[in-house]
Amino acid sequence: MLKKKKTEKKTEVYALGQHISMSADKARRVIDQIRGRSYEETLMILELMPYRACYPIFKLVYSAAANASYNMASNEANLVISKAEVNKGTTIKKFKPRARGRSYPIKKPTCHITIVMKDISLDDKYVEIDSLKKPNKHIAMAYRDMYSSEGIWDKK
Q: What is the pTM of this model?
């Protein structure tokens, strides 16, 4: 007897970049900054960071968002980077000719970058963030009272 599987809505999409010509450690330095952040915040961070690794990661994040909007019809404001990882790829090895007939090895490392994005509007665990924010009136009143009271600075 065959049983029907429950069809769950897909909440995650990914983009994979393979054989990107840079060291995995250099790409990891940027990936650690964007892991767990929202899509819009990630794009701003990647545009302003001065590292060479930012451009391929920017393209992957943009591609993952395009996959989410096409495959799941999700809004970009609801996307969060749930998983981002960098793995070592193959090392391209060449030999450079040197003086007196010698050769010098050149090793160019590559890496594989995976960006996984989650749509928080489709996930039951997440609650809308704006509803959790409540303005704290007591701090604002204490701030105003501090400058309106003239007791401390008027004494000579």
A: 0.72
